[in-house]
Design goal:
Strand content: 15-25%
CATH topology of the largest domain: Jelly Rolls
Protein name: HTH araC/xylS-type domain-containing protein
Shape: globular
Strand order of the largest sheet: 1-2-9-4-7-10
Pfam family, one: HTH_18
InterPro entries: HTH_AraC (IPR018060)
Structural class: alpha+beta
Number of helices: 11
Mean pLDDT: 93
Largest sheet: 6 strands, antiparallel
CATH superfamily of the largest domain: Jelly Rolls
Order of helices and strands: EEEEEEEEEHEHHHHHHHHHH
Number of strands: 10
C-alpha cells in the first residue's frame, strides 16, 4: 500500500488530499469518522461494509459526511483518492439533511454535471503528487467552492468543538453561542449529521486516539484522565462506538490505513 500525502498541505478550502495505491490485495480495514466531509474517487475494485457489516455500494465519485466507522477491502492495483473538506460541505453540496445521510456514500454525479466529473476523474487518475492533484481539482471544481464552503450556523460551533478538543459539555455551546440547546440539536441534525453530544465525543476520541497511536503518554489512566473520561470503562465504550473494536484488538491488529490516517494532523483550521 502506497500512502501519498503532503504534510505541509495548504489550501484556502480543501483541508487535505490523500492518494492510496494498493499494490496487492488488502483485507478489510477499519476507517473511523473524523467529523469532516469528503469527496472520494474510487479507481479499481473495492468492497465496503458499514458498522453493521452490511455491504455498501461504492460510486466511482462520491461525497460522504459524518457517520459511523466502516470497513473497506481493496483489491490489487486499485486506488482511493480522498479529498478532505470542512464538515458543513456535505449539507452544502447535497442540500440534504445531514443526519439522513449518515453512512451513505452519495453519488456526486447527482449534483455535478457529469461531463465535468468525467473529465476530472480521468485526468486525476495518473497524477501521483499532491500538488498536481490539487491543481486538477481546482481546475474542474473551483466554480463550486464558494457555495460548498458557505458557513452554516453550525460552522462556528463545530470549529469551537475542535478547538476545545471535545473537552466540553453541550450546555457550554448554548452558553457561548446565541442558540438554545434545542436549537443546537436541530441544527446538528440538519447540518452536521449527528447530535452535538456525539460529535463532541467523536472529536475528543480523535484527539485521544492520536496520542494513543503516537504513544504520547506515560500511562493509559493518565491519558483517560486528561481527556475527561469518567473511568477506563467509559473510554472502552467510546473505543467500541467509534472503531468497532476493543483496545486490545486495536493494539494487536495491523491496520496501516488507520495508522497512516492517525499520523496526519487533526483539526486543520
Amino acid at each position: 500500500m502506497n500512502f501519498i500525502n503532503d504534510p505541509n498541505f495548504k489550501h484556502s478550502f480543501i483541508k487535505d488530499v490523500v492518494r492510496i495505491d494498493y499494490r496487492t490485495e488488502v483485507p478489510l480495514q477499519c476507517i473511523n469518522d473524523y467529523g469532516y466531509s469528503y469527496i472520494m474517487f474510487r479507481f479499481g475494485k473495492f468492497e465496503a461494509y458499514d458498522y453493521q457489516n452490511a455491504p455498501i455500494e461504492i460510486p466511482k465519485v462520491f461525497v460522504k459526511g459524518t457517520g459511523d466507522f466502516f470497513k473497506v477491502k481493496a483489491y490489487k492495483n486499485s486506488t482511493w483518492l480522498s479529498v478532505e473538506l470542512p464538515n458543513h460541505c456535505l449539507h452544502n453540496i447535497t442540500n440534504r439533511i445531514a443526519k439522513k445521510c449518515r453512512n451513505q456514500l452519495i453519488d456526486l454525479y447527482d449534483y455535478i454535471d457529469p461531463s465535468i466529473l468525467d473529465q476530472l476523474y480521468y485526468e486525476i487518475f495518473d497524477l501521483t503528487d499532491i500538488s498536481s492533484i490539487t491543481q486538477t481539482l481546482d481546475k474542474h471544481l473551483h466554480q463550486f467552492y464558494g457555495e460548498w464552503n458557505k458557513n452554516l450556523d453550525s460552522t462556528l460551533l463545530v470549529n469551537y468543538i475542535y478547538k476545545r478538543k471535545g473537552l466540553l459539555a453541550v450546555s457550554e455551546l448554548s452558553d457561548r453561542f446565541p442558540f438554545s440547546e434545542r436549537s443546537i440539536e436541530r441544527m446538528f441534525y440538519r447540518e452536521v449529521g449527528s447530535s452535538p453530544y456525539r460529535f463532541i465525543c467523536l472529536v475528543r476520541f480523535n484527539f485521544i486516539i492520536r496520542e494513543l497511536e503516537q504513544q504520547n503518554y506515560s500511562s493509559l489512566d493518565e491519558l483517560i484522565s486528561k481527556y475527561n473520561y469518567y473511568d477506563h470503562s467509559h473510554f472502552v465504550k467510546d473505543f467500541k462506538k467509534f472503531l468497532g473494536q476493543s483496545i486490545h484488538i486495536y493494539k494487536n491488529d495491523f491496520n496501516p490505513l488507520l495508522s497512516s490516517a492517525l499520523s496526519r494532523e487533526y483539526n486543520k483550521m
